[in-house]
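Re: the 222-residue chain
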Amino acid sequence: MKSLLVVLLAAGSMSLGAQILGTKHDLSATGSGARTNTTQTCVFCHTPHGSAAVASQIVPLWNKTTTVTTGFTMYNTTNNPGSSLQGVVDATPTGASMACFTCHDGTQAVGNMINLPNDIVSLTYTAAGGVNATGFIASGSALLGKDLTNDHPISITYPATDTGLVAKATVLGLANSVKLFGTLGSEKVQCASCHNVHSNTLAPFLRVTMSGSALCTACHIK
């Protein structure tokens, strides 16, 4: 039984890697966008040993040295007074969204790791896809910055009662669709609600197709 479990876990890991390989989230030497001098792919977010302290575990086995949580301007009813926003917005990105901003706010290099991969001594970059020669996302649509007032709200609770939205229970029950994150009763919309960092089958890393605005109407009644 133990051997079977190991095989299944290995197969799952290979499947996950196959989804990342060749995408812009593949920053290895054979990646499709910006590249580095390592052959490893997962290391830019995860490490099997010596990961960030438990309090800093944005995602499991987190391999980032720094998480900048200050200086963000969130989308809310104050800076978007015409919005019908009913959910409660966090003061700064939280949860899975904060993991995204350790690269996509443009304030630190994408290779800012606790543990370097074991096939290199130091990390070097080949600039491409908005990532510059020092490893910072410096241009293009991937650079979100810290002013999020013109982006879809994130780190916001999904209202239990909002006639403009699909019922939360329905969204939570949808398979292979958008995801809500957080504790029961206080589920939130995060970057990963619409995006799947591990798969670019529907570019750019979408969970649901934009054909017929299906991604939008998974939550919004239009």
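Residues 1-18 have pLDDT under 50 and may be disordered.
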